[in-house]
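Lab notebook, bench 4. Continuing the backlog of folding jobs that were queued last week. Each job is logged with the same field layout so the records can be merged later without manual cleanup. Today's entry covers Outer membrane lipoprotein Blc, a 185-residue chain. Filled in by technician R.K.

JOB TYPE: sequence-to-structure
TARGET: Outer membrane lipoprotein Blc
LENGTH: 185
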Amino acid sequence: MAKKEMEVVKGVDLKRYMGRWYEIASFPSFFQPKNGVNTRATYTLNEDGTVHVLNETFSNGKRDSIEGTAYKADPNSDEAKLKVKFYLPPFLPIIPVVGNYWVLYLDQDYQVALIGEPTRKYLWILCRQTHLDEEIYNELVERAKEEGYDVSKLHKTPQSDPPPESEVVPPDTKGIWWIKSLFGK
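JOB STATUS: finished
OUTPUT FIELD FOLLOWS
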């Protein structure tokens, strides 16, 4: 029996969605550093309405990061189905890799988000703060379960308070794990 298409948030105000989000939990991928901590995403609205994406994680005291662009899959739809395109800097010629980013839940204050994609292989719980109230966390897990996700695969991401500064740590620009964890390649 085919799973019903998952429900996606409608009418997201991209301006309010911009800024930094901390990864509270996600489905781990064997490409991602097992010891990756303080993982976060920073979104900035571009003048053309697309979104600049900066993903960062820290492992062994080094910052890994990768940048990309997000845009609405269908400009005429009010559903929060985005495509995220990353250019792979380690490879030449530069190949854009595109993945899906579906907002499955967003609270009214734009403080907590549940992000998935159509294959249900990837799931992220994001929060504006480095820590999320356990009760809210459990509600999001329950919601993901209702949308057909195997929530037993969720792994909490360690976050330190205060979070590390981006600038202090020399960047490791490879960022390959982000690509692979996002797209299961």
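OBSERVATION: The chain has one domain: 14-183.
SIGNED: R.K.
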